[in-house]
């Protein structure tokens, strides 16, 4: 049974969301602020985190909003690739972009449909699951991608990618030289993934940083201006 961590300061949202997720077959744990969220995350090791961006600061403690929690999760050794779905009532698109740049896999604006949120959870977990059809290892220079085990290695060391990052890398690496538009890359994430084409840029930025071997290394993922991105297979 998959465990989902819900982080939100509104008890009613936790209550309703917990009910829908439990009926869908998930185990649910919850936290109401950033400090508690990180404690529960490290104790329970959830399979996915639903994270409200706008979290209050507990009395007499340093404030930890949703972006701070996301940063801490992405720095957590061994658990940094845990999928994150952001909840946000903020209307400023930049807040969402910042969240995506921190490695969130998807976002759901408030108010939201609990059924839609359950569908998003299932979609992100599907992207995180090993593929039964591995299609063989993909090698490009010092980069190795193992689709079956959803494993990425660069220079002999394992790289932790979020489910979204891995799906984007695999999509492009399987067709080196082919130019993918942002719309095509969004489509590759599946019909349950809804996002702006601009969010692809945030995921690609994170992906490039993770698979870069050296500061002056030529990029494996190349921007084709006015068109999108392509994977540049290297010897």
The CATH topology annotation of the largest domain reads as Rossmann fold
The backbone outline, from C-alpha atoms, is globular
- C-alpha-based Rg, rounded: 18 Å
Task: Tell me the major beta sheet.
Answer: 5 strands, parallel
Strand fraction: 15-25%
What's the oligomerization state? single chain
CATH homology group of the largest domain: Response regulator
Summed up, the domain count is 2
Average of the residue pLDDT scores: 83
Q: What structural class is derived from the secondary structure elements?
A: alpha/beta
Distance between the termini: 42 Å
CATH class of the largest domain: Alpha Beta
Flag low-confidence runs: none
CATH architecture of the largest domain: 3-Layer(aba) Sandwich
Q: Main sheet: which strands, in order across? A: 2-1-3-4-5
**Count, helices:** 8
What order do the SSEs take from the amino end to the carboxyl end, as H and E? EHEHEHEHEHEEEEHHHEE
Overall helicity: 25-40%
The strand count comes to 11
